Amino acid sequence: MATPFDKRIVIVGGGTAGWMTAAAFSRLLPSGCSVTLVESEQIGTVGVGEATIPHIRYFNQLLGIDEREFIEATQATYKLAIEFVGWGDASSRYMHPFSAFGSDLGGIDFHHHWLAARKALPDRNLDAFSLAAQLAQADRFAPPPPDPDLGYGYAFHLDASRYAMFLRRYAEKRHVTRREGKVSQVDQTPEDGRIEAVVLESGQRVEGDLFIDCSGFRSLLLGQTLGVPFESWKHWLPCDRAVAMASDPLSVLPSYTRSTATATGWQWRIPLQHRTGNGQVYASDCLSDDEACDQLRHSLNSEPLSDPNLIRFEAGCRAHSWEKNCLAIGLSSGFLEPLESTSIYLIQMAIVKCLEFFPAGDDQTMSRDAFNRWMGLEYRRVRDFLILHYHLNRRTDSAFWRHCASMDIPESLKQKIELFQESATIEHYEQGLFAQPSWLAVYLGQGELPTGVDPRALAAPQASVVQTLEAMATRLHQLAQGAPSHREIIRRGGLTREPAAAMSLYGERHG
To answer: Which of 79, 324, 353, 416 is catalytic?
Structure first.
């Protein structure tokens, strides 16, 4: 039996999930472990997830990847936020930035003071108190200032296919072996059903001790071979189709992703250096595929570069991601629409947790159960946050949105919403991705105003609070307006890391 230091690891499937896994294993596992990746050039990848969240920076840093090299290789741009258009009522618009809003005053969360004083601040919406949102609205970008009260995270828009190729080169330099071919058969041990090998159409047999299923929606190993059932969440997330098209790059380069609600779902716009990623997510019982393609074409902000690519899916996840000696990562484990750009994050978390709970001995029960609990919570927490967007809509223009507003939702999410409605208290999930500012952005951005706030905020001297908030918003606006354009930063090849140089990008002098 193999030891932890000479395990044969077989990854079935390439794409973003497969090559992220291979790259991480090649860097972080002991040298005695062998890693083989099996993929076929005849099998396409979904390849619509081109927007990320800040966690990808930590993944790249873990692998020792230089950010400027990454940006050039993937034609990436920077991302500070997601703009949601029409998700409250048809005319609403708000940012979900990678930052907090404002600064706490007197030990009381900022949003309580803003809610208490907002009638005296009619021109200061929540976005006015986030530097990331201010930069995004101005199509600007600069590194986070050293002042922690002004800090924010940033992510990237990237070409997912180029990222996979970049990581393939990285992994192969570190002795990952690639096998070309389609899997025609999966061999299991007769005594306990563990996977012992995959057989390619060529007849080649690839044996392993641990198998990673990155086969996409097919879930060839976890679903088809080991029979782990799929749990559908379509009753909460009714969209089951997406159509994607590339178009020419935009003349002005936004530093944010845009999500625009339509009568039957929503559209995305993702700005890259060499092209713009566009797509429409919709419910097939409300809109035909041909209608969706036509709507997407008419919405493009630049000339199309490709034909529509239709993707069928169902929101949900497998009952668990690790069964016997097989662990699923990416779409083979579950799918949640890219509304909050979480697809690559869920891949990343599965990789990190696989390394953390790496099966060391013959009995893997505790590691397997811990991994499954963790990933199950990750999927459900993201699921609930996506449901929040749909359920809090205030649109009345279609049966689709009226259904989403009135549908039953998970009890844990219902309690969170009711708590905020009653007291403006934001209870974020333990072990959940989205922290308090994210929930606040959606609650208030979609018009969910609470009936109560922290009484200490009401008791504070309102004139002084208003003056402080005005000064805060003015400061952030001035900083944003002094920053360079996003395109200029990309033209320079990326960021400068020194704090003094970072502040100089905001047009400020510090002596």
So the answer is: 79
